[in-house]
Amino acid sequence: MRSLNRLPLDDDLVDRVFTFLPTFDALQAFLLTSKSIYQVYLRYPESIVRNVAYNVAGPALPQAMQLVEYRRKLEDARNQDDETKSVDLPEESTTVKHISTDAAHQLARIAKAATGLEDIFSRMIILFSAHFGPRFAYLEDDETDSDDSTERNEDLLQQCIAFLDEMLDPELLEIRAVMLFFSELVSQIKVVGHPAGLGVASRGFALMVGPEAILESVLTRSTGPLQEAETYTPENVPATLHPGFLEDPLTTLLQKRRIPIPPSNETWRALLHEIKGENDQCERCQSVCGMALYNEHNWDLLQGIMRPHEVVGLFKGRLRLAQSAIDLVNRLNTNTTIDEIISEIFDEIKSVEDTTERTHWLCFSCVCEFVSGYLHYWLRETRRKEGKVIHEDCWYGYNCRTQVHNRAHADKLNHLCDPTRGDP
């Protein structure tokens, strides 16, 4: 059907092109290309926006719009300074009729966070099963230990159980797998002065805040986005429920239905029925490690597996007991990460004889062995680049016993070197 369109295409064909736009950014860019295209949009704005929204959110669009509407109502309640007002979930619908500009922006943000987390999830999911298990534990809060708070907590717990009880058994296991992924992902967020990462309660709080803040905190390696998002959490959820925010009702319901809770190494089977590469070998020792392999594309995952004291343990000889260990821990607790160390070793320090390449997939043990061989060189060269004086080498190098108990000797000579006397 020809109308206001001056293009060599019918309006219906242009409208059809609109339905394939993957994002609202693509929609905006398409509208800016031609007045004729914009005129076609003005004829079908509702259907075009709805189709793009389906491309953004997929079949979950009705539920996504329910979330957007709930957030709007929650914000309205806060603007009215009525903290006691309860906000009910909007009625769920299988269709979406109208999407406002603000709703479209919120939908795009939610979809972006979901996509980002899916990307990370695809890289980490099996890795976590190899290194981690469930870590949530319910923490009691003495300040709210009263009959009223206990009754309130129990009421909220029952509400959560009732909400989850609408789901099928396989869906509950899928939610549990995602919950464990989120909790371990958040545990990797670096907290200055706290090398163990976020505590149990903080991880439970992060799950309550939601995926957008979690993704931003992981990408920036900072708790800032989580702290900024604190204003979006429901005021009626007491701190005693934060640690087990999702795990407590989920575990209760699984037990009620007598659904066996899978062991940590089988958790992800709830989401992945086939794991490609589960029999892949380490390119250094040839052992079968499946997905638990590392190269330059996922060294950053080591940040959540190797704590500072474990990295220090890779030092050769007695360096791990000397002042050099303190220096390395301080760096790891501030602005240095294990993936940066490995990258710099490859760039500047690795010997010509070592045939290991950045692209080689190595098991965890071989990564540790590789780093251990060069870690003392890395620290020495890092100090040199910072303008610090590198003193004459000690004859006994990293094996020197005196450096451990004699600070003057440790400061006078360089021990970040290979021994030329004594034990090799």
From TrEMBL:
Say which domain of life the source belongs to: Eukaryota
> What name is this protein filed under?
Uncharacterized protein
